Amino acid sequence: MNPKGVNLSDVWWDVSPVRHAKCNGRNGANELPLKVLDRVIELSTDEGDLVFDPFGGAGTTYMAAEIKARRWLGIEIGPTDDIVQRFAEIEQDSKILDDQRKELNALFSAQVRVARERAGWWTCESVRVADEEKRQRALNLG
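^ that's the sequence the OP posted. Answer follows.
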């Protein structure tokens, strides 16, 4: 394990494509999942860095860069109304990212953790409690 968190594999099973009209909220623009751009920007830049996206589409890159305190520069030859509207509602995308990032560096999602606890299986929290109890017993014996 990486001491700074869980190692990221090259397969991102937790990201679904936004390719169907029912999932795409931007009028025909190529909308990538916000989670993808959040992850790419987090992995490849630091706060204040410049992010360049020459294919603006629905503005997902710009939104993620803005939320993550990166400077950004973009180009889009098509209509930009969706991008402008998206920035008018930046709080929604910011909340989406906040909710997604709650599960970062977690072995089990909250839903899986609850199911494991109900089944009586170990969780990270139960192992920590058991380890702390062992440590306390060892201190009391010593």
